[in-house]
Amino acid sequence: SRRYNIALLPGDGIGPEVIAVAKDVLNFAASLEGIGFDYKEMPMGGAALDLTGVPLPDETLLAAKDSDAILFGAIGGYKWDDNPKHLKPETGLLQLRKGLGVFANLRPAIVFPQLVEASTLKREVAEGVDLMVVRELTGGIYFGQPRGFKTGENGEEIGFNTEVYAAQEIDRVARVAFNNARKRQGRVCSVDKANVLEASILWRKRVTAIAAEYPDIELSHMYVDNAAMQLIREPKQFDTILTNNIFGDILSDAASMITGSIGMLPSASLRESGPGLFEPIHGSAPDIAGQDKANPLATVLSAAMLLKYGLGEENAAKRIEAAVLDTLDKGFRTGDIYSAGCKRVGCKEMGEELLKSI
Amino acid sequence: SRRYNIALLPGDGIGPEVIAVAKDVLNFAASLEGIGFDYKEMPMGGAALDLTGVPLPDETLLAAKDSDAILFGAIGGYKWDDNPKHLKPETGLLQLRKGLGVFANLRPAIVFPQLVEASTLKREVAEGVDLMVVRELTGGIYFGQPRGFKTGENGEEIGFNTEVYAAQEIDRVARVAFNNARKRQGRVCSVDKANVLEASILWRKRVTAIAAEYPDIELSHMYVDNAAMQLIREPKQFDTILTNNIFGDILSDAASMITGSIGMLPSASLRESGPGLFEPIHGSAPDIAGQDKANPLATVLSAAMLLKYGLGEENAAKRIEAAVLDTLDKGFRTGDIYSAGCKRVGCKEMGEELLKSI
Ligand SMILES: CC(C)[C@H](C(=O)O)[C@@H](O)C(=O)O
Ligand SMILES: CC(C)[C@H](C(=O)O)[C@@H](O)C(=O)O
Prior knowledge:
Two copies of one chain form a homodimer. Chain A is α/β, with parallel strands linked by helices. Chain A folds into two domains: 191 residues, Isopropylmalate Dehydrogenase (3-Layer(aba) Sandwich); 160 residues, 3-Layer(aba) Sandwich (Isopropylmalate Dehydrogenase). Chain A contains twelve helices and 14 strands. At the A-B interface, strand 7, helix 7, helix 8 and helix 9 of A face strand 7, helix 7, helix 8 and helix 9 of B. The structure holds 3-isopropylmalic acid (IPM) (2 copies). One 3-isopropylmalic acid sits at the interface of chains B and A. Chains A, B: Homodimer.
């Protein structure tokens, strides 16, 4: 029997609720494959700020680095909204990503047949969408130096950031996208703004160069403004979208909304070796926190990604994915994905139904 | 009778076709209000590259600066796609915007009742959308210094750009947005990424400060990733969206696609005083250029914006807008907005129908 160390970072808002469900589901599905876990639960985000004064305590980062994989809930809340930048919950998340070096963020956007009506797109446009955004996660304008504030000649305030990519940063995330596309439909659309930005010109050049290592993959390029349009016009045209940190932030949220069920979408953040970070793409939803209303499925599916991409335990991952589909087929829905004729359940009850389905 | 000087920049691809129609419509509508025009037609984009070797000849910029308003078609085409950056048609457009100092780009996205089915969004989501993106156009990462390429310590190539905003750049475009919102529903949503970027922190701070001058306007703030989602989830929540150059590029294209008819959407680029630049938001569509298939309505509506925002000739502008609605009511459609039961027309015939409707 195999044992893994999991760092559990529930975070804020609905984070603890969805993590609790995901942990139960993960345990049960894995146990059927002879897998066991040792968990280390650590504070992060607003919870860590309240406890320790910083959004990512050293102990949390250390525990994460020492683990085999990290399951993370969500961070943020009204309470910390006006904090200075270095004391914002979000800063803790950025420090965690950077500290772990997880440069490749995989964000699948799948329209579940059972939920196609939840999309605001017409049925024929939404049906069958199954795309994956591969977002560069530890570079670009999120981390580029120099950054900050200065005073102009006339005394006015100036704010600035640097969008910067080095060839190797592009190369390694491009390889992740190409490798992933191999397991999918074999098509990569690289999104940039090479008609304006030098950082994008290099991006396009390197992605094109790396593509030569993958003759079986079809590579196309698209400007980011057009990509935002095409996601709305005909999302089915996409298989794998490869893009930088800030464009990936925007496009993956757009892609997720196309599925109509942001409460369903997981993500994985990976590096070549070392533990991966697995989290739902939704936020901490402070408005419904503690009310047992949250949809745990995005976090549950993140646990499935943890098994598949983090530990290479595909069979256990498939058990979780199948249980999610089965539970949807049976008609169980949290409020965010409810439609007439279904059975409305809370976060905990959804968890119990998942356990029954495994 | 009033006379104005108009610089006419047809550009590339379908540019000349749609400009020809817009010019006829502009002339006729204006003549009924006692307005006359002197046109100066100048090369720009790929056409200028072929003719003079640069995408924005000095003479073109001078003629534009000397005019009362500029009507521009579109630029770009396969032929120049592999040109180095300073010889790309797009670079000419950026130089024109910067040279004119038109820092405020107004991009309305309206779902025309006649075309609601053209949207890929469900009828109930698309119906009634009427929003305006106010995009900062001469600053930010499009023009920020330093920018370029350098070599890293390990010899690898690095590409970089600077996202930078000074207080006054933010203040002046914010005022345009607030003033515009006054003529609309009085709500401004400022979009930034203040949880990550210093340039956005300053953006939010200045927009909030300027809002104090407009107590009648309701200001809200939204992160750009969420805005991309909300445009798909519930576009009707927006009245005026105020944002920076790069986010505005992405969000205005997304907003236009929500209307399902990018061939319908005009834009105006303005400064405090001096001539404004008016152009359709669509591109040069080289695949259908010269085939009389282009939809001229975006350029025609840009001519209406030229009258309204550029020359203060509201009555003539209203004549054009009314003619567009009337022509749509009569069922005339170019291919891009065609639906069963309508009358399919080419670019020229659409122009003739518009003249009949005026
Ligand atoms: C919370 C925020 C810093 C974060 C980001 O911008 O990366 C979030 O939007 C995301 O996409 O995970
Ligand atoms: C052609 C390109 C440089 C331009 C931009 O990015 O501003 C275009 O996309 C636009 O939105 O007008």
